[in-house]
Design brief:
This protein is an alpha+beta fold. The chain is 48% helix and 18% strand.
Length: 704
C-alpha cells in the first residue's frame, strides 16, 4: 500500500440476486467482500476459518439464519448452493457459517462471496472514478485519520487517468469517517453495500429527551408528594427530635427511603421492560433483547442513573422534613404545601414538559399526514412496479403482451434507478438525476409536459440525440425556455438536445427538494423495470394474468411486484414509527403528571379539610368549594402552557428542518393543547375536590 498508516483495506458491494432451492426461487442480497473481511471484522464463525473462508472464488459464507432457512441446519460446510449472478446460476460451496448478525450491527448480510469472483468475471471497474462500493480501512493505532484522508487525495491525483477525471470545475476529495459514527449519520439513509440500519440522530435525541422528561416528571412527583406528606409526618419528626434524634440521622433515614423506593422502581422497571419489549421492538422495527442492557457501559450508566434519581428525588424532602421544629410540627402549625413555591414551581415544570410533548405529537401527526397526502406530481394509484427483467433482451415484446391483457390500462418501462450524474450547460456544471425511459413513461405515470414534446418513435434520433428535463433543471441553469437547448455530456463526449420539459414530480422522498432530472432513451440504459397502470376492477385476476406473461419470458426470476402507492408510504415508515413512539411518550408523561397532580390535590384537600367543613356550614355550595380547591392548580397549568408554547414552537421548527417540504405551524396546535391540558388538569383535580366538597362537615369538623 502507498499509505503506510493503512494496515488493511476491505471493499464491500452488495448485489440483488436470486437463490435457487429446488423449484423455488428466493430473492436475496449477496455481499461481495475481500478475502480478509473476517480478519478485520470480528463476526464470530460457527464453522470455517476466518483466514480462508473467502480465499476460494467458488466459496460462500452463510449466516446462521440463512443456513437454517435454506438447508434447515447450520452443519452445511461443503454443501452446494446455487445463485443467479449475471444471466446464469452459479454453484457455490459453503465454506463457513457466521453466527447470526446482531440486530444493532451497522454491517448486515445474509451471505458473502469473495470479491475475487467479480474480478474473475471481469465485472469490477478499475476506473478511479467508479464510486460503486464501500471501502473500510484499518489504520495503525497511532495514525490520524484526517491526515490519511489528505494522503488519499494525493494518491488519487497521481493515479487518475485523463479520461476518468472529473469535469472542469469539479473536484473529487476523500475523507475518512470513524466506523462508530456511521450508525447515527443523518446523511447515510438507506442500505448501501452492506451498511444498513443507519438512524437519524435527531430521533435518538428526541427519544432520549422523552425518557429524561418522564423520569424528571416522576422525580418531581416524588418530591412534591413527599413534601405534601410532610404534614402527616410532622409529628413523627417532632417526636424523634424530642427524644434526641439528630438532623443528620433524619436526613439519612429519608434518603434511605428514597433510594429504597428507587431500587424497587428499578426492579419493577426491568420486569415491566421484559413484558413490553416485544411490543416496543415491533413498534421501532428492531429486534431488541434484554441482554443488550448488560453491556459494561450501560451497567455503569444505570448505576449512575440509580444514584442520581435516588438523590434528586430524596434530597430536598429529606432536608425539608428533617428541618421541622418540634414545637410547630407537634401542634401542626406548618402549612408547607400552601406556601411552598418550589412545589408549585415543580408542578409548573412537569406540566411544561408534558405540554411540549403534546404539541410535538400534534405537529408530527400533521407532518406525517402532509407527507402521505401531498400531490406527488404523478398518479400512483393502481400503479404496479414490476422488476426482474434484467436478462430480457427485447422488453418491447413483454410490454406488448401485458398491454393486451384485460385490466391493464398502459405499460411503461424505465431502467429502474435514478442515477446521479452531471453535465455542462455552456460553462455551467449541473448535477442531476438521470433515468432511461420509453415513450410511454409520461402517459402511464400521468406526468404532464409543460413545454415541447414527449419522446416518439416518429423521431428516429431521439434515443441518441434527445432528452427531456424537468422544471427544476430549468431553475438550476436559469432558463425560462429549454426546448432546443443543448446539454454537453462530457463523460460520453456527446451533446444532447432538449425536446421537452416535464412538470416537476417527486421521484425521491419529500425530505429532499425536487432535484434537476434528465430523461433519456439512451440505448446504453437497459430498461429492466415496468410500470403497469391497472384498471380499478378485478385487480387480483389482472395480477395473475401479468404473472403468467412474466413467467413465460422470465422463468428463472421470482415474480416481484409492488404497488407504487405502498412504496411511497414505505419512505415514511420511520416517521410513522416515531409518530407512535412520541404519542406514547406524550400520553405517558401526561398520565404521570396527572398522578402527581391528583396526589397533590388529595393532600391539599386533606390539609384544608376543616376549612372546607366551616365553609359548608356557613352555606358554601359544592361548585364554590370545587372552584376554590381547583383554581390554584389550574393557574399552575396555565402558567405551564404559557411557558411551553414558545419552547415547543422552537423545537417543532428545528424538527421540521429535516423535511424539504413541510407544514406550517398552526395556531390550533397550541389551542388544542391548551384545551387538553386544562381539561385533563380540571378532571384530575376536580375528582378529588368534588369528593371533599360533598363530604359531611360533621366528620371534617370532629375534634381529634
Amino acid at each position: 500500500m502507498e499509505i503506510p498508516e493503512i494496515k488493511e483495506a476491505i471493499r464491500t458491494q452488495s448485489t440483488a440476486t436470486v437463490f435457487r432451492k429446488g423449484d423455488e426461487l428466493l430473492n436475496s442480497q449477496v455481499l461481495f467482500a475481500d478475502p480478509d473481511f473476517f480478519k478485520v471484522f470480528s463476526f464470530p464463525l460457527l464453522s470455517g476459518d476466518a483466514g480462508t473462508v473467502l480465499s476460494d472464488i467458488g466459496s460462500i459464507v452463510l449466516t446462521e439464519d440463512m443456513a437454517m432457512s435454506y438447508f434447515g441446519s447450520t452443519d452445511v460446510v461443503g454443501k452446494i448452493i446455487e445463485i443467479k449472478l449475471g444471466d446464469d446460476f452459479e454453484p457455490f460451496t459453503v465454506s463457513g457459517v457466521v453466527k447470526s448478525i446482531p440486530q444493532n450491527s451497522s454491517i448486515q448480510f445474509d451471505s458473502m462471496i469473495s470479491f475475487q469472483f467479480q474480478e474473475s468475471k471481469g465485472w469490477t471497474d478499475s476506473a478511479w472514478m467508479g464510486f460503486y462500493m464501500n471501502t473500510f480501512i484499518l489504520l495503525d493505532p497511532r495514525a490520524d485519520y484526517r491526515e490519511v484522508g489528505s494522503k488519499m487525495d494525493r494518491v488519487f491525483a497521481a493515479h487518475i487517468k485523463e479520461g476518468d477525471s472529473p469535469g472542469e470545475g469539479q473536484r473529487v476529495g476523500f475523507s475518512l469517517q470513524p466506523f462508530l459514527d456511521i450508525h447515527l449519520d443523518a446523511e447515510a439513509a438507506g442500505d448501501r453495500n452492506g451498511l444498513a440500519r443507519s438512524s437519524n440522530p435527531v430521533y435518538s435525541y428526541i427519544l432520549g429527551a422523552i425518557g429524561i422528561f418522564i423520569l424528571a416528571i416522576a422525580c418531581i412527583n416524588f418530591i412534591n408528594l413527599a413534601v405534601a406528606r410532610s404534614l402527616k409526618r410532622a409529628k413523627e419528626v417532632g417526636i424523634r427530635k424530642v427524644v434526641g434524634g439528630k438532623r443528620k440521622q433524619l436526613i439519612f433515614q429519608f434518603l434511605t427511603e428514597s433510594f429504597l423506593l428507587t431500587f424497587i422502581a428499578f426492579v419493577l422497571a426491568f420486569l415491566l421492560l421484559q413484558m413490553v419489549l416485544p411490543t416496543f421492538s415491533a413498534l421501532v422495527n428492531k429486534h431488541l433483547a434484554i441482554s443488550y442492557l448488560f453491556d459494561k457501559g450501560l451497567v455503569l450508566l444505570f448505576g449512575a442513573l440509580f444514584l442520581v434519581t435516588g438523590l434528586v428525588a430524596g434530597f430536598y424532602p429529606a432536608v425539608v422534613l428533617s428541618g421541622f421544629s418540634p414545637s410547630s410540627s407537634l401542634y401542626k402549625r406548618g402549612k408547607l404545601l400552601q406556601q411552598n413555591y418550589l412545589t408549585r414551581g415543580l408542578v409548573v415544570f412537569q406540566f411544561t414538559l408534558s405540554i411540549c410533548l403534546v404539541v410535538g405529537t400534534i405537529a408530527i401527526f400533521s407532518q406525517f399526514n402532509y407527507l402521505t397526502t401531498i400531490d406527488l406530481g404523478y398518479n400512483d394509484e393502481q400503479l404496479v412496479k414490476l422488476d426482474g427483467f434484467r436478462g430480457v433482451k427485447d422488453l418491447s415484446i413483454v410490454k406488448s403482451e401485458m398491454e393486451a391483457l384485460p385490466g391493464v390500462a398502459s405499460v411503461a418501462a424505465f431502467n429502474g434507478n435514478y442515477n446521479g450524474t452531471g453535465a455542462k450547460v455552456g460553462e455551467q456544471a449541473v448535477d442531476f438525476g438521470y433515468i432511461g425511459v420509453d415513450d410511454q413513461f409520461l402517459s402511464t405515470l400521468e406526468i404532464p409536459l409543460v413545454e415541447g414534446r414527449n419522446f416518439s418513435s416518429e423521431f428516429a434520433t431521439d434515443p441518441t440525440e434527445s432528452i427531456l428535463v424537468n422544471e427544476a433543471f430549468l431553475r438550476e441553469v436559469g432558463w425560462t425556455e429549454a426546448v432546443g437547448q443543448e446539454v454537453n455530456f462530457e463523460w460520453k463526449n456527446k451533446k444532447m438536445t432538449i425536446v421537452g420539459v416535464i412538470k416537476d414530480y417527486h421521484f425521491a422522498s419529500l425530505k429532499e427538494k425536487i432535484a434537476p432530472l434528465v430523461l433519456t432513451q439512451d440505448p446504453g440504459y437497459r430498461l429492466q423495470t415496468l410500470f403497469l397502470k391497472l384498471q380499478p376492477d378485478n385487480t387480483a385476476e389482472t395480477l395473475k394474468s401479468i404473472e403468467a406473461v412474466f413467467r413465460k419470458h422470465v422463468p428463472l426470476m421470482p415474480f416481484d411486484y409492488s404497488f407504487e402507492e405502498m412504496n411511497n408510504l414505505k419512505r415514511y415508515e420511520q416517521e410513522a414509527r416515531w409518530k407512535q413512539m412520541i404519542t406514547a411518550g406524550a400520553v405517558l408523561s401526561i398520565f404521570v403528571s396527572c398522578i402527581g397532580l391528583f396526589g397533590l390535590a388529595a393532600f391539599n384537600t386533606e390539609s384544608r379539610i376543616k376549612e372546607i367543613g366551616v365553609r359548608k356550614v356557613i352555606g358554601a355550595s359544592v361548585f364554590g368549594i370545587v372552584t376554590l380547591l381547583s383554581k390554584d392548580f389550574i393557574k399552575m397549568v396555565m402558567i405551564a402552557i404559557l411557558l411551553a408554547f414558545p419552547i415547543s414552537y422552537y423545537g417543532v421548527q428545528i424538527w421540521l428542518k429535516e423535511f424539504a417540504y413541510q407544514i406550517e405551524i398552526q395556531w390550533w396546535f397550541f389551542a388544542l393543547t391548551a384545551v387538553l391540558g386544562i381539561g385533563v388538569a380540571m378532571l384530575t383535580v376536580g375528582i378529588e375536590a368534588l369528593r371533599a366538597a360533598r363530604m359531611n362537615p360533621v366528620k371534617s369538623l370532629k375534634s381529634e
